[in-house]
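Good morning C.,

I know you're traveling, so I'll keep this short. The sequence:
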Amino acid sequence: MRAENEFNYRVGVSVNGGEDELDAGVEVRRFEVAIEGHGERLDKLLVAQAGEFSRNHLQGLIERGCVQVDGIVAGSASRRLRAGQAVSVALQPTDESRAFTPEPMVLAIRFEDEHLLVLAKPAGLVVHPAPGHWRGTLLNGLLAHHRGAAQLPRAGIVHRLDKDTSGLMVVAKTLPAMTALVRAIAAREVRREYLALVHGEVATALFSIDAPIGRDPISRVRMAVLAGGKPARTDVARIACRDRISAVQCSLHSGRTHQIRVHLASRGHPLLADALYGGAPALGLERQALHAARLGLMHPIAAEGLTFEESVPPDLEPAWTTVCG
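The tokens, ready to paste straight into the viewer:
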């Protein structure tokens, strides 16, 4: 028998009894199992017919009911097929391929001109698409906010805040501004100050934690103080202390992943509700008690000094007030 490929484009096709509506423009690809494919697994034959997709993604389409054999939904990737059987697969795009799409969202903008914007990121908002968070990120919102974002690497994002960290971020809107901001951050010319609530009584005198940070060799989702890590320095000043919970201000001299969280935990002062680094919940907090409160920089084009301050958000304010009075 002769293998056949047909390429049809259908909109709003239901492939699973109406429960799984396809995206507009999804390609439905059909083929007939050739003699040489007799006895082969379904997922293996799909890879041969749709090699632009990974086997893992195609297996996921089978699980979602997007593949039919002789007009009946195929439920198993390991199913062995017979020569002459008709196969159709609705080739849904991968989540990753759809990550960099505009998604309108409300942005708490504190400053904006043609070159840059400064915004207050809420806790819970992911900054950049990544596995498990391909949609609904700040990057998606920036792509919808202004047309030029699509022409910039990472839509103009020059630094990040963790998902559960709130506060100020600067974002470039033009390539010259982005280049200048990246250089300024690397040269430590952008001032970033954070407020945090941590366990334990932090020393009253200002101190610095100068310790290299790298990927935790045991848990890949964590960072750790490691001899072979990248240089990192955090200045810490105690603001108040009550019932063995301290309010502190942290100034960054570098921007390593999870830097403040790792540095303070390494000194026995994990952030409240920061489960990843041993911080137990306290004072009603459901997310790590970290807020980017101050941002200072030189405008990358106008060469004017800019300074911004952002009060602790409503979800953090009661706990902050409890400690600081």
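Safe travels,
E.
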